[in-house]
Design a protein that fits this description.
The chain is an alpha+beta fold. The chain is 39% helix and 24% strand. It has 16 helices and 21 strands. Strand 5 and strand 6 form a beta hairpin. Helix 2 runs antiparallel to helix 6, helix 6 packs antiparallel against helix 7 and helix 7 packs antiparallel against helix 12.
Length: 601
């Protein structure tokens, strides 16, 4: 400024607002509070130059502040800062040279500066304080309240002290730079670790909601203070928006914000722009105006204010063929650094990985639905038979899309007898399901209308599988149930399948022993039939090995657990309740389960 004070126009000093200079000034982390090292420099100036006031004065865009000071009058001593209207040191920054004034009242540059009247500044000598790039951050100055002829020795001493003071400033900046470099390195390491584990983390589930939740927890708070994940329908419209905030107290606000965004994205919304164009959007500095401009729901703005908006970026979630299926939005609150190119590259990588995970999850959901419809279409409706209660269940493994080879069947012969069967074809794919359908139809066609013993029916099934080249081995139990004077007579034959379990009306439990070779062997074996009687209230349980088998233990232990469970709970209640209890108790299932239970009335 040419002159400072009331009644004069102030000419702005461009150097004061230089962003590089202000950034270096900020990296010193000094402010209007005492700092012992810089107070020591001020005392040295006061002692060596014999002046009443000495200052380490740093100048930003709208004030000067004194981390080092001695001799300042009140209230300035307590405040440790003044506005630029009281600053001589700003002119040192402007000219980037020492400013030496024997009597400031005679200098056209500062004669109207308020420091003369309010601080008693008359004689002034200020030496530049610089960073490593030579930018002037302020001055080390000596001040007297009366005119003074500064000697060459005094100015040389002041210059030497200013050089030492500049070294201290540079050290502070270097320490800050080292800390920032370390923080960046740690952040980069954490991001690489996150990206390295993200594919495995997202690939560990085939459920879309779980994948989205894991994605949010991976990004917050490492990359952002909060995030939004938008998924679209086939027409490209937002179908769901979810998010995560680092502050658990803001979960309700974020949930409402996400809910409103599903239908509240306006034409200028940056999320909508990314969904439409596939190009990312970064706002290193942002605010509530962005939210107001991009949304159509007034409630979004106060919600965003509570959530905090200081910067944000949005990248597309892309599936196979660069198809856009959603967007990831990262948001930082005010006070956290704005997003930069490094953040953008990380977010874009996340968008690709998220697209793979979400795409796989959606494909899995579609395939699983088709598989379940196919599987259940192959399972029969149980017949109604006088004197016999029937119940059945089929439960696929929850985390697998394949259809399985487990099956059950029950049908009534022309003479009124009931034929029941359960079986398991090797494999968990469409071929296994197709073979299972063939085998079930062979059982029906082979047994319907015939009065042969069950062992002969199973032997004929062996021959049919060989002659028709059914490409599998399988297990099965075939049973014929007919009324008996004592209840129900059950004739059955086991072809390599887990044996039936008998639950008597009095609560006793036993395994119906007898197990023959598998179905479908190259050389058909001799089959053996067995017979048991179900008294009124007795239950016969047929099941596949998924109910009792685990990879980490022998199948005999699983069967023992089943018997113990049945013994502890007894036969009480309906068969439907019994089947539900058995499925609920089958923890850590690794295979599909089929159950067929029948009870003598």
């Amino acid at each position: 400024m040419s002159e400072d004070g009331p009644g004069r126009m102030s000419v702005p000093i461009p150097a004061l607002a230089d962003p590089d200079r202000l950034r270096a000034l900020g990296e010193t982390r000094l402010d209007a509070v005492p700092d012992e090292a810089f107070d020591r420099f001020a005392r040295l100036v006061g002692d060596l130059l014999d002046v009443p006031v000495a200052l380490v004065s740093l100048v930003d865009a709208d004030r000067q502040f004194f981390p080092g000071a001695t001799g300042l009058p009140e209230p300035w001593a307590a405040r440790r800062q003044t506005p630029l209207s009281h600053s001589f040191c700003q002119h040192v920054v402007d000219v980037e040279m020492p400013l030496v004034l024997p009597d400031a009242r005679l200098s056209p540059r500062v004669r109207l500066n308020l420091a003369i009247e309010d601080l008693g500044v008359v004689a002034y000598a200020g030496m530049p304080l610089t960073d490593l790039d030579g930018r002037v951050l302020g001055s080390l100055c000596a001040i007297d309240s009366k005119p003074r002829a500064w000697t060459a020795e005094q100015l040389r001493t002041l210059a030497d002290l200013a050089a030492a003071c500049s070294s201290e400033l540079r050290l502070r900046i270097a320490v800050r730079g080292a800390e920032e470099a370390r923080r960046r390195a740690e952040e980069a390491h954490d991001r690489l670790a996150m990206l390295a584990g993200m594919s495995q983390m997202l690939g560990g589930t085939l459920d879309v909601a779980t994948a989205v939740d894991r994605l949010g927890h991976a990004m917050v708070p490492l990359l952002a203070d909060w995030c939004l994940i938008t998924l679209v329908d086939p027409a490209g419209r937002p179908r769901s928006v979810s998010g995560l905030h680092r502050d658990a107290d803001r979960e309700g606000d974020l949930a409402r914000f996400a809910e409103l965004l599903v239908t509240g994205l306006g034409p200028e919304s940056q999320i909508r722009s990314v969904l439409r164009t596939g190009r990312p959007v970064v706002r290193a500095v942002a605010g509530l105006a962005d939210v107001a401009r991009g949304g159509t729901r007034p409630e979004l703005v106060p919600l965003a204010e509570r959530l905090g908006v200081g910067s944000h970026l949005t990248v597309p979630i892309t599936a196979a063929g660069d198809r856009i299926i959603g967007a990831v939005t990262l948001v930082n609150r005010p006070g956290r650094r704005g997003f930069d190119d490094s953040d953008l590259r990380t977010a874009q990588d996340i968008g690709v990985r998220a697209g793979q995970a979400v795409g796989n999850s959606r494909l899995y959901g579609e395939q699983r639905h088709v598989a379940e419809v196919l599987q259940h279409s192959m399972l029969p409706t149980l017949p109604t038979v006088p004197g016999i209660e029937l119940a059945a269940r089929y439960l696929p493994v929850a985390d697998r899309v394949e259809v399985g080879g487990d099956w059950y069947d029950a049908f009534v012969q022309p003479d009124g007898e009931l034929v029941a069967a359960i079986g398991d074809v090797a494999g968990h794919d469409i071929e296994a399901a197709a073979t299972m359908g063939q085998l079930r139809n062979l059982v029906r066609g082979n047994a319907y209308g015939r009065d042969d013993p069950v062992e002969k029916l199973v032997a004929q099934l062996d021959r049919a599988m060989g002659g028709l080249r059914v490409p599998t081995v399988a297990t099965a139990v075939l049973a014929r149930i007919r009324p008996d004077a004592d209840g129900l007579r059950v004739s059955w034959c086991n072809a390599g399948h887990p044996p039936p379990v008998l639950v008597r009306a009095d609560g006793t439990v036993a395994v119906a022993e007898g197990r023959g070779p598998l179905l479908g062997l190259a050389r058909a074996p001799r089959r053996t039939g067995r017979t048991l009687v179900l008294a009124p209230g007795d239950t016969l349980l047929l099941h596949t090995d998924g109910l009792i088998e685990r990879r980490d233990r022998p199948i005999d232990e699983g069967q023992a657990d089943l018997l113990a469970h049945l013994g502890a709970n007894g036969p009480g209640g309906s068969l439907d309740l019994l089947c539900d209890r058995l499925l609920a108790a089958a923890h850590r299932r690794e295979d599909d389960v089929a159950l067929l239970a029948l009870r003598a009335g």
